[in-house]
């Protein structure tokens, strides 16, 4: 029995055991234990931020909102005064407003 105990290493004060910590100190959700499905569905929570992609996304969203605002403003301007170009038989043109009834 003396040989069996002599071969085993002596416990040291630095050995904390073979268990790994459940999370790392990287911050955010990268160190939290999650399922593969959660990581696949919420991919953006686990990758490092990319400034170029964020800048492109910000410009794209801003452009879309500005275009929608532009279309809305143009529609409001057209409904206020419906103006069209009227062609005369002699070849001249004249800008004319649409006639509206008194009921409108």
Characterize the structure shown.
It is a single chain. This protein is rod-shaped. The chain has 104 residues and is mainly alpha-helical. The model has no long low-confidence stretch (mean pLDDT 76). The termini are far apart. Strand 1 and strand 2 form a beta hairpin. The chain is 40% helix and 10% strand. A two-stranded antiparallel ribbon has the order 1-2. The protein is built from three helices and two strands; from the N terminus they run H-H-H-E-E. The longest helix has 30 residues, at 51-80.
Would you spell out the secondary-structure blueprint of this structure?
Blueprint (H helix, E strand, L loop, with lengths): L1 H6 L28 H6 L9 H30 L2 E5 L5 E5 L7
Antiparallel strand pairs: 1-2
Spell out the key features of this protein.
rod-shaped; mainly alpha; about 10% strand; single chain; 3 helices; 2 strands
Query: Whole-number average pLDDT?
Result: 76
Number of strands: 2
Radius of gyration: 36 Å
Strand order of the largest sheet: 1-2
Distance between the termini: 108 Å
Percent of sequence in beta strands: 5-15%
Helices and strands, in N-to-C order?
Answer: HHHEE
* Principal-axis shape: rod-shaped
SSE-based structural type: mainly alpha
Uncertain residue ranges: none
State the share of residues found in helices, binned by percent. Answer: 40-55%
Give the biggest beta sheet.
2 strands, antiparallel
Instruction: Report the total helices.
Output: 3
């Amino acid at each position: 029995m003396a040989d069996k105990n002599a071969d085993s290493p002596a416990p040291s004060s630095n050995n904390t055991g073979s268990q790994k910590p459940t999370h790392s100190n990287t911050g955010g959700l990268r160190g939290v234990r999650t399922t593969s499905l959660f990581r696949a569905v919420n991919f953006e929570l686990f990758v490092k931020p990319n400034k170029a992609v964020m800048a492109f996304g910000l410009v794209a969203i801003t452009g879309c909102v500005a275009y929608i605002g532009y279309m809305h403003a143009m529609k409001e301007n057209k409904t206020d005064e419906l103006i069209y170009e009227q062609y005369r038989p002699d070849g001249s043109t004249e800008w004319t407003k649409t006639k509206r009834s008194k009921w409108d």
